[in-house]
Every structure is written in C-alpha cells, then in structure tokens.
Amino acid sequence: MTRPEIDNLVTLEIAKDEDLPRFKKDLQEAFAVAVIEEFGSVSEPIPSDADLERSFEAPGSVVYRILADGRWVGGAVLTIDDATCHNALALFYISVKEHSRGIGQKAWKAIEERYPETKVWETHTPYFERRNIHFYVNKCGFKIVAYYNAHNPDPHDPDPESRLGDGGMFKFEKIM
Q1: Cβ–Cβ < 8 Å for 118, 108
Q2: How much is the pTM?
Q3: Fewer beta carbons within 10 angstroms: which end of the chain, N or C?
C-alpha cells in the first residue's frame, strides 16, 4: 500500500561523527529490502561496514542526514569534485517506513540546489533494484549510461567479486 505524498519540508544536514552508527544501520536496513526480495535473505549487512567507512572517508565525501520537518528520515553520501564539477551520489537511502511519500525526490532536489555548480551527477545501482532504477530515471532525470557485469566490468570497482547475483550494476548520469 502506498502512502500519500507529504507536504513536509525536506532538508539536508551534515551528519556528525556520532550520527554515523545510526546512518549505517538505517542505510543497511533500507538496502536489505531489495536484496531480500531478490535473493530471499541477507547473510551480512549490505553494504558492508567497511564499504560504508570507505565512502564516508573518500576524498570529497560529504555525508548528509535527510530530514522531513526536522525528523531524520534518510541520508546521502556525496562525492564533490570542486575542480571538475562532476559529482557523485555514492549512497542514498530513505527509511523504509517513509517510502512512497515523495521524500526521496524532494531530498534529491535539495541536493541539486545545494550544488548548483554541478555539471554532471553520477550514481550506480544494482540491476535488481527496480525501485532505484525507476527513481533515478523517471523521478530525478538520470540516464542509464552503462551496464557493468562480468562481460563488461566497471574499471573503477575495486571488488567486483563482492557484488550480488551476477554482479550487474547500472551507471547513471544526469547532465545539468
């Protein structure tokens, strides 16, 4: 059952170090939904704590809490390159309890507004994440520009063997 769209004010707030344990837990819970739907279960957190730490500490990384009327409802990890203005959405989640209410789209709009100098946004999602594919393409205006898999590996993926299923990942870009 879908919930009605909200009129809440959706804002971004830089996450503090003490927010990161909850950020990890909430993100892993949100990501687990599609994994369970596709594969039946989750044997370990996805993404791993180590992958999350790498994202948090990557050069140019900015970690945001997403708030709806001041309530923490999601998060985003961005990689900002001030020199090229080619930026990346490394991780993005909305709490499962808050899905289908328009929060994700409002949060993405807030991200775009926060970085108006961006020339290109990039992100990735697994082939089985139908909700994400729909969201990025139909709601946010991204285009699919590549499909990485065993026959066409992502040249920037340090550990393609850790990918679920056939490892397939879509790469999206949005030219501003």
Answers
A1: no
A2: 0.87
A3: N
